[in-house]
Every structure is written in structure tokens, then in C-alpha cells.
């Protein structure tokens, strides 16, 4: 309550300044031609130019362990959430190696971390520095693969050399260099032959070059890159379903069309190649783009499996195949929602649970971990989830530079 | 009179904003007095009053606190290069950075710098068509982690915009790169003159 009151005072003070500022502003110079928005502002409305909707400051530092308010996080009855590791500025995507090392990529700090457990205690090692947006991590054949913005690199025999990591081998370096949506989520295919990752669209809403707005896979034996799906604006989370071996992925919807549209989505690759999920013409399977959708139809495109909410920033997702959570959680999907920025009322900032029915259709979406946001103020932002071999689940938070662990019944 | 009121109002907002917009909610509150002590080594170039001693050195007075800490963190992590800054930031803890930022953020903003009226008008026009104020604020006063450009040294602004345009200076999320790539040298000069003319 107190927080809210102070916040509204702040808002009032902010408005007062805005009024003063505009009263002082010199008269605008006459404009000869209507402005053409720069690429980064394509699709942005006049309302969207409100400075209060500027991006959130990204998390680029780590909170000391004793200052992380883990007690504010809420999980369903019977579950427990605890701080598992900390001190990883901007720690984001995670993968677990067969020996139990958890590798963590970053977007802003250029670091890659390794978290090892010794005598029940976690030790965080920074195994790489100075990389360019090393957001994606995957482990295969004893090597750690890292997806940077425009290349895939590999650290061989890394497990035995965490304190003195080898120089990386460059695997593939011919990826686009666009910064917007250029950081990647990466995962290994179940047969161990391919690395799957996305090439995001280079702006909010544009007709992208055909190299972009796609999910691709890199053959680890031949180094040949193949397109597996197009019309995907930006996916920062994907996982293969056990049994079907189909790839499911999250996709972030376009900005500025509406506060409540379009939704971020959960999608399934029901055909191994050739699916098109509609960007930039159609979003969420049934929302024709107000500008780019003219003369098009959503019927041209493949549909998502589920709508997840507008601007929630659905990022990391995993199927739950562990043995620790109750039986009804088996085969569920957990999704980390990083949380909205260009929306007047915050949404997301939670981990949600998606339940599939007997026909493999998502039928229920509900919050699983909440508490990162209080009113309009957030203290943490979940990025990725990772189910450990013991069946517990990790959640990374790039705002506090920490990883939390959810367990059941212990 | 108008100027005084506006300055006061901005300071009031800055005061309220510090605890809420600090990048980690659980961290110790920033301490401007401690920051002043820690900022001694900054004074030689950035001045005790937050006004750079030469045109290539940015004014820090009245910068949003997060804008200062974010740049210091990027200097420390060597993501941004800037003369001696990497070495100077190397020894600073996150708390040091928050304190130093609190000190400079609370100083009166740099005075408006008069310039060529035609150039300033052109800069204002470009600022409007490029939507600079959608992030940097109505009067380019900065907010959150986004820099205050009002009253900034024009030479410094020109260098930074050119470095962002060429990719020499790291681009946080691609927005500034996209914004800068369409600007000519003349555009950049006009924008810098306009920003400097604000207070």
C-alpha cells in the first residue's frame, strides 16, 4: 500500500515536470514533410512515443545473495523455492551437462558461467568473458556450444578445464550481425545431430530479409545450416517433446499494435520443415497485422498451439520430464515470462505452467511461480527454466543475476 | 524564475526516483555523500560540479543515476571503451558506482549552451522525426538508464553518435544503432547543438 502511494506521488511529480517541460519547450519547427519513422520505430504509434514506455533497464549486475528477496517468490502448496546460485550478472539461458554442471549464457555482459555443485554448495565460475551476446548454450559430446550474436563457438573438453577454459573453436560464423533480436536461444536435437536456434527479425515489425524471422538448425557433422520454420518473429525458448520428438517453441509478438494484442505464443513444429507462422503478416494465428496484413489472410499461415498473453515476453520453456514433481506435472510445459515493458500495466514477470491433454493439446495455462513484480515495480525477471536430473527445476533471473531452484516434497 | 522551478521539480523527481529505479530492489540505498568521497578521482576530468573540463569529456551533472551506473558497469566489463575509464572503473564495486551516480545525479544540470539558431532548429526537427524524446525524455533530460542529453557537451555527443553509428561504441539493444545509422555528419552536429541548447 505504502509503495503504491509513493508511486502515485512519483507519477504526479513526473507529470508536473512533464507539464513544466512542455510549457518551456520552444515552438516546434514547421515540418515540411511528414516524418518517416526510423526502422527501430516502425509500427510504433503516437501513444507508443510516450517516454514512460521506454525499455526497462536491462539487468547487468548481480545482487549479493543476502540481498535477493527469494521469500517474495510464491509457488503452489507442497513446492519449495530457494536461492540456488548467485553472482552471475545478466545470467540467462541454461543447460545441464551429463556430469551436472549448469552452464549459463548472457546477453549484455558477454560472460558465460559454469555452476558446479561441491559438497552441496554451489560454486560459480566465469568461463568466458568478452563474447558478443553469448545468450545460447548447449552441451554435446563433451563440448559446450555457445551461440553468440553472429556465430556458434565450441569449448572442447570443458568439464575438466573449468578453471582454465580452452580457447573456443569457431564452428559457424556466417550468421547475420543485426543487433535487434540477434541474441539466440539454442538447443540440441534429441539425436544429437543438430543445434536448433532462431534468427530473430531485425526490428519490431518489418518485412524481414528471408534469412531472418526463422528457426534454423546447424548440422554438427556437415556444418550445413537449414531453415526449419519461417514467420517466427523472435523465439527465445524451445525444447523437444519426449516421445514425439517435436520441437515446441515460444514466440514474442510484435509491439505497439495494442496494449493487449497480439499475444506471445507457444508453437509446435508438426512438420520438420516448411511451416510459416505468419510474421509479419499475421500474428498469434488470427490477428492480421494492421499495416503489413493488408491483402493477406491468416489462413495462409500455420497456427500457434496456445496464446500466452500480450507483451508477457515468453522466453525460456521446457517440458517437465522429471520424477520429483507430482504425477500431474509430468509432460507439462513451464515457460519463463520475462515481463512487459511497453505496456502501461505490467504483465508477465512469472513462470507459468501449461497442461496438455491426452491429444497433446495445451488446455490449461496457470501461474506457477509469481512474486517478481509488486504493483508496477519489479525486482527480478525470469528468463529460462531448466529441469535438473534430480527432477527439481531451475529458474534464471537476469535482473538479480541469480538462479532459483523449485523442488517438491522435501 | 521558470528555470528555477523546473530545476527544483526535476530534483524532486530525481529524489523520489532513486530508490525505485535503482537496478536492484534489495541493494543498499545509494549514498550521495559517500559518493562524493568516492568520486574524488572523477573530479579531475568531470569536475566536482559534474561539468567536464574539456569538450570531449561528458557532463555528468543531473544525469539519471542509472545512466551513470550502466556506463560504469560497461567500462568495468570493457564492453565500452573510453580512454582511462576502463582502468578507473575496474576498482569500483556496484555500491561505489551507485553512490557516485547518486552524487552526480543530484547536482544542478549543466547550463544551456547557446549556439547557431538555425542549427539548433534543425537539430530539434531531427530529434522530433527520430523520436529521440520517446526514450531520452521530453526535454532530452534522460530517464531510467537512458542518458541526459540536455546541456551535454556538443563535441562529446557528436563523437558518441558517430561511434554508435560506426559500431565502435557498443549498442545496448540495437535501437541506438538503428537511430544513428540514418544520420549524416551534419545531422549529428545539429542534434548535438540542439541537445546542448537545452537545460
Structural overview:
The complex is a heterodimer of chains A (410) and B (199). By secondary structure, chain A is mainly β. In chain A, 6% of the residues lie in helices and 35% in strands. Chain A has one helix and 29 strands. Chain A has one helix at residues 2-24; strands at residues 79-85, 91-96, 102-106, 112-118, 121-128, 136-140, 143-147, 152-155, 169-172, 186-188, 194-199, 214-219, 225-230, 238-240, 247-251, 263-268, 275-276, 282-283, 287-288, 306-310, 314-319, 333-337, 350-356, 362-369, 373-374, 377-378, 382-387, 393-397, 402-408. In chain A, the strands form eight sheets. Chain A has a five-stranded mixed beta sheet, with no helix packed on it. In chain A, a hairpin with a 5-residue loop joins strand 2 and strand 3 (102-106). In chain A, 47% of the residues are buried. Chain B is an all-alpha fold and 199 residues long. Chain B folds into two domains: 2-105, Orthogonal Bundle (Cytochrome Bc1 Complex, Chain D, domain 2); 117-196, Orthogonal Bundle (Cytochrome Bc1 Complex, Chain D, domain 2), CATH 1.10.760.10. Chain B is globular, with a radius of gyration of 16 Å. The chains are: A mainly beta (410), B mainly alpha (199). The interface between A and B is large, with 60 and 55 residues.
